[in-house]
Specification:
alpha+beta; six-stranded antiparallel beta sheet; VC0802-like; four-stranded mixed beta sheet; Carbamate kinase; 2 domains; 28% helix
Length: 260
C-alpha cells in the first residue's frame, strides 16, 4: 500500500535529521511484522527514497559497483560506471545479483538515481543507475546460472506444437513452480530451460510424458551475454557442448552441459 506507506513515513521522518533504521522488515495491514523478501534492505532504502522524494539512493556493497560479469566465474570483470534503469532490470532478470528489480521499480517511477558503491573503498565512484543512461563502458555483460534443467518436448505423433500445447506446458510449469529462463520452439518441438528450485522435476516429467516425447538434461548451465559481439560469443562457445543457443538483437543465451 504505497499511499499508506508514504503517509506513515512522511509523518514520522523530519528531513533535517539523521535516521538509522533497519531494513528488510515491515508490517501488513493488521500491523503484523512481515519481511520484504530477498534484498529487502535495499528495497527498504528505495521505499524511503520514493516516499520522501529523495535526491538519490546509495547502496553499499562488498564489490566496486555493478560489474559486467561475476568475477567468481569470469576473468577480467569490468566495472560499469553507468547504466540505465532498464539495463539494470534486464541484467537482474537474466540472473545478475547486485541489484534486485524490486529495488529499482520505485526509484524508476520517480526518476531517483541509484548509486552502487563499495564500503571497502568508499571514495571510489562505483556505478550510477539513472533513466536513459547509456552503458559506460560499452562492453558485453556476462551472466551464468548454474544447476538449471533443459527439457525438450516433441509431439508423439509428429503433429505440430500449437498454442493449446504451449498453454498446457506453461500451465504445468506454473503448477510445479518452475521458473522459466529460456524457451525455444519449432514446428514439432519445444525446449525450455528452467530453475528446479522446489525440486518438483520428477513429478513434472511424469505429467509431461503422458502427452509428449521428453528429453531432459539435468544440472546444465545457462550463459547469457547482453550486448554480445563475435569475440564474446566465441569465448563461451569454444569447446563447450552446447545444447541450445538463442540470439536476439541485444542478447545471446546458451545452455551447455555441466562441467563445460
Amino acid at each position: 500500500n504505497w499511499e499508506l506507506t508514504q503517509q506513515n513515513i512522511s509523518k514520522s521522518i523530519q528531513k533535517n535529521k539523521l535516521y538509522i533504521a533497519q531494513g528488510f522488515l515491515g508490517s501488513d495491514s493488521n500491523s503484523f511484522t512481515t519481511s520484504l523478501g530477498r534484498e529487502g534492505s535495499d528495497y527498504t532504502a528505495a521505499i524511503f527514497a520514493y516516499c520522501l522524494n529523495a535526491e538519490g539512493v546509495t547502496i553499499w556493497k562488498d564489490v566496486p559497483g555493478v560489474l559486467n560479469a561475476d568475477p567468481r566465474y569470469f576473468e577480467n570483470a569490468t566495472l560499469l560506471h553507468q547504466i540505465s534503469y532498464q539495463e539494470a532490470i534486464e541484467l537482474a532478470f537474466y540472473g545478475a545479483s547486485v541489484i534486485h528489480p524490486k529495488t529499482l521499480q520505485p526509484l524508476q517511477r520517480k526518476e531517483i538515481p541509484l548509486f552502487v558503491k563499495s564500503f571497502i573503498n568508499p571514495e571510489n565512484d562505483g556505478t550510477s543507475v539513472r533513466k536513459g543512461q547509456t552503458l559506460i563502458p560499452n562492453v558485453p555483460c556476462f551472466i551464468v546460472k548454474k544447476s538449471q534443467v533443459l527439457i525438450s518436448l516433441s509431439s508423439l505423433d509428429f503433429s505440430f506444437i500449437v498454442e493449446d500445447n504451449i498453454r498446457e506446458i506453461f500451465g504445468l510449469l506454473a503448477d510445479y513452480k518452475m521458473k522459466v529462463d529460456v524457451i525455444q520452439n519449432s514446428a514439432i518441438s519445444f525446449s525450455v530451460c528452467v530453475d528446479n528450485k522446489f525440486n518438483n522435476l520428477a513429478e513434472l516429467l511424469t505429467r509431461l510424458k503422458g502427452k509428449f516425447k521428453v528429453t531432459c538434461f539435468d544440472n546444465v548451465s545457462l550463459y547469457t551475454i547482453r550486448h554480445y559481439d563475435d569475440k564474446s560469443v566465441k569465448s563461451l562457445d569454444n569447446g563447450r557442448n552446447v545444447l541450445l543457443k538463442q540470439l536476439t538483437a541485444d542478447t545471446m543465451q546458451m545452455v551447455v552441459q555441466n562441467g563445460d
